[in-house]
Design goal:
The protein is built from seven helices and eleven strands. It is α/β, with parallel strands linked by helices and 256 residues long. The radius of gyration is 18 Å and the shape is globular. It catalyses: UDP-alpha-D-glucuronate + H(+) = UDP-alpha-D-xylose + CO2.
């Protein structure tokens, strides 16, 4: 194995912490940078004290200077309650933060993967969405701070790649669930599980016939690592190709 020194921004978060686990178990040196707005120290505390692990409390809106071989840029609130709590901060994280990370990657000649989102497609009028789909978006809607922030993040990434001849990867992440999710995540799976655990009536908006794709977090992590190690530089959708109705997801949730 070619051992690498890897930076993960947002590495104390839901997805980031599972990525930490995989890379640590593979024997890499892992540095986590997190401001703990949505990330939690408890997600990575089992690695604290390990010689290959370092945890840095830092907000990537401010530049960081560190020596690494690869960067996974996952830092950003991703659930509606979190990113709408402070929309200006969300935009700054996805613009200024991304500029800082791309600048770091440029100086180090490090490969960088930017975690984008399926939300760049907005409210799509085609299903499923291929990577070539430009989206159906509202730049001033309640979710725009996140959606447009990620769209700008992608634009910045490819501007840097073209101008500075950088090695970049962009992952458009679809709905993900698994251990370490925030119970107040505000998205479908966590809402259903929380209501079921409280023996409450599960809330469905609309008929429940609308479809979503759901992937388990370990599958997403495998996809992120495979994309980083590939030679493909264009955006890649990472999600379950099979969509399920909301009603179907409720029935599945209630089985457990």
């Amino acid at each position: 194995m070619n051992r690498k020194r890897v930076l993960i921004t947002g590495g104390a978060g839901f997805v980031g912490s599972h990525l930490v686990d995989k890379l640590m178990l593979e024997g890499h040196e892992v540095i986590v940078v997190d401001n703990f707005f949505t990330g939690r120290k408890s997600n990575v505390e089992h690695w604290i004290g390990h010689e290959n692990f370092e945890l840095i409390h830092h907000d990537i809106v401010n530049p960081i200077f560190i020596e690494v071989d690869e960067i996974y840029h996952l830092a950003s609130p991703a659930s509606p309650p979190h990113y709408m709590h402070n929309p200006v901060k969300t935009i700054k994280t996805n613009t200024l933060g991304t500029i800082n990370i791309l600048g770091l990657a440029r100086r180090l000649k490090a490969k960088v993967l930017i975690a984008s989102t399926s939300e760049v497609y907005g409210d799509p009028d085609i299903h499923p969405q291929p990577e070539t789909y430009w989206g159906h978006v509202n730049p001033i809607g309640p979710r725009a701070c996140y959606d447009e922030g990620k769209r700008v993040s992608e634009t910045l990434t490819y501007a840097y790649a073209k101008q500075e001849n950088m090695h970049v990867r962009v992952a458009r992440i679809f709905n993900t669930y698994g251990p370490r999710m925030h119970m107040n995540d505000g998205r479908v799976v966590s809402n259903f599980i929380l209501q079921a655990l409280k023996d409450e009536v599960i809330t469905v908006y609309g008929t429940g016939d609308q479809t979503r794709s759901f992937q388990y977090v370990s599958d997403l992590v495998e996809g992120l690592v495979a994309l980083m190690r590939s030679n493909y530089s264009q955006p890649v959708n990472l999600g379950n190709p099979v969509e399920h109705t909301i009603n179907g997801k409720i029935k599945f949730t209630c089985l457990f």
